[in-house]
Design a protein that fits this description.
The complex is a heterodimer. Chain A is of the alpha/beta class. Chain A is built from nine helices and seven strands, in the order βαβαβαβαβααβαααβ. In chain A, strands 3-2-1-4-5-6-7 form a seven-stranded parallel beta sheet, with helices on both faces. The chains are: A alpha/beta, B mainly alpha. Chain A: It is an enzyme of class 1 (oxidoreductase).
Chain lengths: ~250, ~80
Amino acid sequence: MLSGKVALVTGGSRGIGRAISLELASQGAKVVVNYAGSQSAAEEVVAMIKEQGGEAIAVQGDVASYEDAEKMVQSTLDAFGRVDILVNNAGITRDNLLIRMKEEEWDSVLNTNLKGVFHCTKAVARTMMKQRAGRIINITSVVGVIGNPGQANYVSAKAGVIGLTKSNAKELSSRGITVNAVAPGYIETDMTDKLGEDVKGKLFEAIPLQRLGRPEDIANAVSFLASDKAAYITGQVLNIDGGMVM
Amino acid sequence: MSAEIFDRVKNIIVDRLGVEEGEISLQSSFKDDLGADSLDVVELVMELEDEFDMEISDEDAEKINTVGDVVTYIASQK
């Protein structure tokens, strides 16, 4: 479905990003696995892709820095000569009650989760405009739609990503570039492992499909949105949450 | 020198904006006369950078209104 395409996945070494890297590669894409700190995890993903006969490289970079974003895109072009798919997945949490939240906690989450999407999109836009083709998929969250206590910073960033997705979709559509967002609900990752059983039990009551999502559930949707089959879809937010938000 | 630059710039404009070469003069405004929108101008600047092997800063690019502005700018950088 994606053979010959080149994909850059930010935060592609762990959690949802890891599943996205592996799925895009299994569909034939050459994958650049970006990581900020988890070098060994990124190299493991690259090794797994190569074992399956795919092509991949790992590239270090912090999306909160525009300079790093530009370097990531340059490394992608140096390795594979083009960039067809950008998945803005890199994200962090610094949860705290609003009343206790430190400015640093607010800034670091906004800088990575929202400004990082701006940086990486800006950095690939030139190449995609010249190619007259591109797929940008932003990983947001259902909490960006419905809000969540203790996550003022994270929710604000994710809601911002939804606005950015729509603006970029309108701005870039005349150049054959589509921009969509995928909004996961509660997915089994390191981020949700920390939740206690009682919290999980309550969660299931709110999820019609009565289970946490798997990273693969998200990766499958991203892979579809990255393919030619999704050519007429842009500016959309796809909730993948077991029916939690309707 | 400028005439040669003007010809190369004209070729890019014809190619990119789909206008007739005869419609393009040094006084032509990209937006008012040649039907370019702001994204078209950004792309033209990108293509000019490649064609003339130079970098045009965002600040300078924002000052470009007419074809003459481009030719004068490129001539001044050479």
